[in-house]
Write a structure and sequence with these properties.
alpha+beta; two-stranded antiparallel sheet; 37% helix
């Protein structure tokens, strides 16, 4: 928006076109990045891609963000595959995907759709200035048409760079462009340079967020949580991220109907977000075999939760109850996780009778974990809904195992509550006015069952694991032996069903959520220099889901 206000005449039109193209690239890098199961096969086919020297020499030295397309033809195939999901499959011609932000008078017919192209983003006087680096069949003719349209242009062995403003002395450190991750689109971001260049805009956005939270009606905030403190915690987490991170790589790949967004976040050594290892080996594949294969969401992880609590203490303390010292709450939480072995698995689902959540925590002393967890709950250390109460814990035998059951009772409903979307959502998730939690110590850990989950089946799965789904198995193979790793498989149609079911009665919709799974797989793995991650989904699944949802 700021950029458009500073543009006028033909340049205003180019700015608008640039924003449209950036939106399209964002859709390809993020929305299109809606990915599928697994990751390794695609990496083996195209792990890295060299940037042609003639292209690299045209990149401005003060570039803060670099986006590289394998070719216009490859980009066209990606956009066309994603367009099949929507109501229309109309896609611009391949060259137009690279040149739509340029003036109409430029000789775009000279662009070669079969060779790599790039966008380098600089920051000049607080607003973004793009440099387009395009492969052309006649560099001099293309450059001449760009200059005639009021742009600057430089040529180098079959490529031309065009921009609204001439090059300037470097404003920040150079990015290293070679090699890039192999894929249809690859992006590399110099995070310190990007943040420095746009710090005033970032600070303004943060201030707007703080103002919005300060003026938000109380019924839209979660009672019991200081929303100003929560906002401050998110801002602090953001600042920690941008001061710890040095570079972000993103790459979009398309293989058949499978589309993935892979990334690598490079971090400064020994920072608060740097990866850390668990103390004991954790078999993620075996953990995945304990999950409910029919559940809407399934997650397995290998993480030292006590260390995670210590590192995120500034963020976690805002969830302390108003009259409790946050340090006390954090210390109790850390103690609870201190005897965990690092392996965790969770499946969650939701139906008309409320939520069903099964969680497993590997532990050297399951009984001590249960005692610490119950003590933490009943101490009132964590903020909760005003008026909600906990029953006294009850010991019971279920499915041949001993369990500790504790129930949270929500406050009695009033007419005002019916209009409160947050309380309505809580009641919908609970399936009534109470939420039951059972803690079940077993060999090697503790199984917790929340809501309406079938305890007997949950225990049987833990004691006799099956095989993980193909999606989870592929993702687990991709994270390999990373010391800290998380893998998840989530049904997007199930998420939509949850969202619709939680609407207050007056806002209910007749939209029908079709049967069938639309699987979103994601994983993150800690490496020596940062974090690798991936999102993946199958476009055919997403297309079928969209068609069923809209009745097509």
């Amino acid at each position: 928006m700021i950029m458009i206000e500073r543009c006028a005449g033909p340049r205003r039109r180019r700015c608008r076109k640039f924003m449209h193209l950036m939106y399209a690239l964002t859709a390809a890098l993020c929305g299109a990045c809606a990915p599928a199961s697994g990751a390794s096969p695609d990496r083996e086919q195209a792990p890295l891609r060299a940037v042609p020297g003639a292209m690299r020499d045209l990149v401005p030295a003060d570039t803060v963000l670099y986006v590289d397309a394998a070719s216009a033809e490859a980009l066209h195939a990606l956009v066309a595959a994603c367009a099949q999901i929507g109501p229309t499959s109309s896609v611009p011609e391949a060259r137009a995907l690279l040149t739509s932000a340029l003036p109409d008078s430029i000789a775009t017919d000279l662009v070669d759709p079969g060779r790599p192209a790039a966008l380098a983003l600089r920051a000049v006087n607080g607003h973004p200035v793009p440099t387009w680096i395009l492969p052309v069949s006649d560099a001099e003719a293309f450059a001449a048409s760009a200059r005639a349209a009021g742009m600057t242009a430089e040529t180098n062995a079959g490529w031309v760079s065009v921009a609204d403003e001439a090059r300037r002395d470097p404003l920040a450190g150079e990015l290293t462009f070679d090699p890039l991750p192999g894929g249809v689109i690859a992006a590399r971001i110099d995070i310190p340079a990007l943040v420095a260049a746009y710090r005033p805009m970032i600070d303004m956005a943060i201030q707007n967020m703080r103002t919005a939270m300060a003026t938000q009606p109380t019924q839209q905030a979660f009672p019991g949580v200081d929303m100003q403190a929560l906002t401050g915690a998110y801002v602090g987490l953001f600042d920690t991220l941008v001061t710890s991170a040095t570079r972000l790589d993103l790459v979009v790949r398309l293989a058949g109907s499978r589309i993935t967004l892979d990334g690598h976040l490079e971090l400064r050594p020994d920072g608060p977000l740097s990866p850390f290892d668990v103390r004991e080996p954790v078999d993620l594949r075996a953990l995945a075999g304990t999950l409910d294969s029919d559940a809407m969401g399934r997650v397995v992880g290998r993480c030292d939760m006590a260390e995670a609590m210590r590192r995120l203490a500034d963020f976690m303390q805002i969830f302390a109850a108003p009259d409790v010292d946050p340090e006390t709450m954090l210390a109790a939480s850390t103690r609870m996780y201190s005897n965990c072995t690092g392996g965790t698995a969770q499946s969650f689902d939701f139906g008309g009778d409320g939520m069903r959540v099964e969680s497993w925590f590997g532990s050297r002393d399951p009984a001590a974990f249960v005692e610490a967890a119950i003590g933490l709950i009943t101490s009132g250390a964590y903020a909760t809904w005003p008026g909600a109460t906990w029953d006294e814990p009850v010991h019971e035998s279920i499915a041949g195992v001993e369990a500790t059951r504790i129930v949270q009772r929500l406050p009695d409903a009033t007419e005002d509550d019916l209009a409160d979307p947050v309380l309505h959502s809580m009641r919908a998730m609970a399936g009534g006015d109470e939420i039951a939690m059972r803690y079940i110590p077993l060999d090697g850990g503790v199984l917790t069952v929340l809501g309406r989950a079938d305890v007997a089946r949950a225990v049987a799965r833990v004691r006799s694991p099956g095989e993980p789904s193909d999606a989870l198995a592929d993702a687990i193979e991709a994270v390999g032996d990373a010391g800290t790793a998380w893998v998840a498989d989530i049904d997007l149609s199930g998420l939509l069903a949850i969202g619709l079911s939680q609407l207050p009665p007056g806002q209910r919709t007749t939209m029908h959520v079709p049967a069938g799974r639309t699987s979103l797989t994601l994983w993150a793995a800690g490496r020596d220099d940062g974090w690798d991650f991936e999102l993946a989904l199958d476009l055919d699944e997403l297309k079928a889901f969209g068609a069923a949802l809209s009745g097509r």
